[in-house]
Amino acid sequence: MGVRVTVSVLALAAVLSTPAFAASNTAKVEAAAKVVQPKVVAWRRDVHEHPELGNQEVRTAALVAKELKALGLEVREGVGKTGVVGVLKGGKPGKVVALRADMDALPVLEKTGLPFASKATATWEGKTVPVMHACGHDTHVAMLLGAATVLAGMKADIAGTVVFIFQPAEEGPQAGDEGGAKLMIADGALDNPKVDAIFGVHIGPGDANAMNYRPEGFYAGADRLTITVKGKQTHGARPWAGIDMASVSADIIQALNQIAARQIDVGTSPTVLTIATINMGVRNNIIPEDLVMSGTLRTFTPERKAEVIAKTQKAVAAIGDRYGAKAEAVFTQPYPVTWNDAALSKWVKAPLEKASPGKVDDQAALITGAEDFSLYGQKVPAVFVQLGGRKADVPAAGAPANHSPYFDIDEAVLETGVKAEVFMALDYLARK
Ligand SMILES: [Zn+2]
Ligand SMILES: [Zn+2]
């Protein structure tokens, strides 16, 4: 009997060290992801129907905490205001890997017509606004809960620790408030246990189950631009008696467009400089004293960012001078470039291929959107991946983008997202 036990332990050890075990682990994840898929869909619909704006994700956070506790994870609540962190300690010692989902919705009036469409409203910067999960963060919450369920079921096999980060306010906090990844990090989301690497997935309108990313710079760095101009108020009939602020705003827009298109090396790195709001005046026959414009700058290198900021500030001040006004451009709320660690990017292709065979593009195009996932990437090696979720009956051209009131996804791809998160975490901890 004793001899027989020794033999079978040796045989088991031999099996575990062969590729066959890796294959059976893959089959185990696939089976578990299939089993949890109806729950993932139910979580997605529940969160979708009850969206909450940044730093207001109280119901969502309570749901997440309840589910993680039910899985037997250690759960920290109230991290970075409404964030939740779950810690799953595997049966064997090893490294620490984090998976991140964001939980916030947007002030958008939902027009999808889905049976679980949002009817929610909330207060944002003093106004009552409609609320919708128009960026798909409802799916991120659901997929990460699904991944936590699969991984908790394999706890004994896991060599190391998986940290599940559910963060609030990815889209940015209200004016004057703080939140998002910055506050999660300040509140210790990457500490205790100390995270060695982090992965994140964002859903979008790409081909169903496509997984796209690229090494190094992926999403742009973003800076908020505010231009304030102080002029001289006058009658609309006597512009020469004051300063014509409409002309000032027009000249500023022309000058900024020329910076982005004509004064920088467009061949080396993309740059977007957008003016999105222009505010001045209350009446048709008063030329006002004040003009405020706002916009956003998107760049992929610190050098380009510094260059465009300097040129913008110089041009705006010079236009003000020309009119006899005082004009100033200020850049705030910097988000860094979302940086995919080069070595990890190379490595991550294999686990992603297991989740979505033949549909992984590791040289995706640059994205001029920005993500506060970038802040985690400044602390630990990180990879951020896009998951395509377009429904089969929606043509690629004109598919509603993230932030559209019509944004919706094919829920079948959530199973792929769950598998991708599980394989990234599991394989990272298993690698030598
Ligand atoms: Zn968004
Ligand atoms: Zn988003």
Automatic annotation (TrEMBL):
Residues 221-320 form the Peptidase M20 dimerisation domain. Keywords: Hydrolase, Signal. The keyword Hydrolase applies. Residues 1-22 form the signal peptide. It holds the Pfam family Peptidase_M20. Gene3D superfamilies: 3.30.70.360, Zn peptidases. SUPFAM superfamilies: Bacterial exopeptidase dimerisation domain (SSF55031), Zn-dependent exopeptidases (SSF53187). InterPro entries: Amidohydrolase, Bact_exopeptidase_dim_dom, Peptidase_M20, Peptidase_M20_dimer. This is Amidohydrolase. It comes from Caulobacter hibisci.
